[in-house]
Amino acid sequence: MGVDRIWNVAEARRRARLRLPRVVFDYIDGDAEDGITHRRNTEDYNAVTFQPRTGNKVAHPSLVTEVFGTKVSMPVLLAPCGLTRVMHPDGTFGIARAAASRGTIQVLSTVAGNSPEDVAGASTAPKWFQLYASGGLNEAAEAMIDRARLSGYEALVVTMDTAVLGNRERDSRNGIQLGGKPSPAVLAKLLGQFAVKPRWSLSMAAPGIEFVKAAKAGRAAGAQAGVVGISGSPFSWDDVAAIRGRWPRRLVVKGLMTADDARRAVDAGADGIVVSNHGGRQLDGSPPTPRVLPAVVDAVGDSTVVMVDSGLRRGTHVVKALAMGAKVVFIGRAYLYGFAVGGQAGVERVLDVFRAEISRTMTLLGCQSVADLDRSWLDLSWLDPGRLQRPAPG
Ligand SMILES: Cc1cc2nc3c(=O)[nH]c(=O)nc-3n(C[C@H](O)[C@H](O)[C@H](O)COP(=O)(O)O)c2cc1C
Hints:
This protein has helices at residues 9-19, 22-29, 36-47, 91-101, 116-120, 139-150, 169-174, 184-195, 198-216, 237-246, 259-267, 289-300, 315-323, 333-365, 385-389, and strands at 49-50, 65-67, 70-72, 76-78, 107-108, 128-131, 155-159, 250-256, 272-275, 305-308, 328-331, 378-379. It has 394 residues and is an alpha/beta fold. It has one domain: TIM Barrel (Alpha-Beta Barrel). The strands form three sheets. It has an eight-stranded parallel sheet. Strands 1-12 form a two-stranded antiparallel ribbon. α6 (139-150) links the parallel β6 (128-131) and β7. The longest helix is centred in the C-terminal third of the chain and has 33 residues, at 333-365. The chain is globular and about 60 Å long. Flavin mononucleotide binds next to α2, β11 and α14. Flavin mononucleotide (FMN) binds at residues 27-28, 41, 79-82, 109, 111, 130, 159, 254, 276, 278-279, 281, 309-312, 330-334, 336.
C-alpha cells in the first residue's frame, strides 16, 4: 500500500492491525500482564507540558545530533526488535536501509532473525548491535560479540531487563513461545489466522520458509542456544564488566530504571545507558520512563550518554524526553507498525512523520536547536511526589 496515508503513528498501528495476522500484530503490539506500564509510558509523556517561548523567530530548527561522535539527522534511533525478519518481506535489511536513507541508526537485535554479518552488508551507515546474554558471558555470547566487532558494529547494546521473558499473555493465547516449536494444534490455529490475511501470507510464504531453513541450519542470528537463552541464569554487573573487557568500542547498557543502576552501569564501564522498561513488555508495574529519566540524568548525565525509550509515539514526546536530558531516543513499536504496513518505505515514512512533528514542535516551542533543549522548556510539576500520593478522586 501507499505509505503516504500514514500521517501519524496511531494510523500506522491501525493499518498494521488490518494487514497482519493476529499472532504477528499481537507480538508487536503486546505487553506484559495487564499492560499498565505499557499504557502509562505514553500517558506520562502526554502529562508533561511545555513552557513555550514566543517571539523567538525560529525557522527550520536543527535536529542534527551527535552520538558517540556519529552525526544523526535527528535524535531518533531504531530500537532493537526481535523477529523483524518475519514481519514483512523486506526483512531486517529493509529496516537497515530505512535507517541509512534517513540518516539514523538501526540497533540490530540478537534475535532479529538475520545474522549481524548479513545486516551489516545491507548498508554503509553506522550501526549498533544489541546483545542478549542472560546466561552471562558464555561462549555463545563471546562468539556473538566477536562477530559484531568483525562486522563493523560501532556500539554494543547489552539488554539487562530480560532475566526471564515477561509474561506476554497475548503471545501465550496465540500459542507462541520465543524459541519454542509450535504444537500441531497451535500450528492449525496459526494457519487459520494466516488464511484470513492472504495478502500478508502470500508475501511472507517464501521469506518464512527461508527463515525456518536458516534457523534450522543455525544461520539465523540468535538461533544459537545460549544467546537466545533469555531465561538463562541471572545476568550480573560482573558480566557487564567482563563484556567491557571483550568489546573495544562503545558499550551501552539498556533496560535501566533507577539512578543507582545507572551509576552501576557507569562503574562497570558503560559509555551509554538506555533508560527503558522494554516498552512495558517485561516487568509490569515498572515506572514509566519519563518519571525516572530526570533523576537518572541528574545522577550520571555528566559521565555517560543517557538515552531513553518506551512509549514514544509523537514528536512532542521526543522533544520532552530530550528536554529532560536524554541525548537521543529509541522508538520501537512506532517503526514496527510502519514496517509491517510498508516495509522499508513504511519505516521511512514513520521516521519522516517524527521528523516533521519534532520540527513543528520545536518551532512552536520557540527553540532553534535540539541542543538547546533543557528542563526550562517543560513544566515538570507533574513529577511532584505530593501530587503522586494524592488519592484518586471519588
Ligand atoms: C516486537 C518487539 C520486539 C522487541 N525485541 C527486543 C529485542 O530483541 N531486544 C531488546 O533489547 N529489546 C527488544 N524490544 C524492546 C525495544 O528495544 C524497546 O525497548 C521498546 O520497543 C520501546 O518501547 P516502544 O515500543 O513503546 O517504543 C522489542 C520490542 C518490540 C515491540
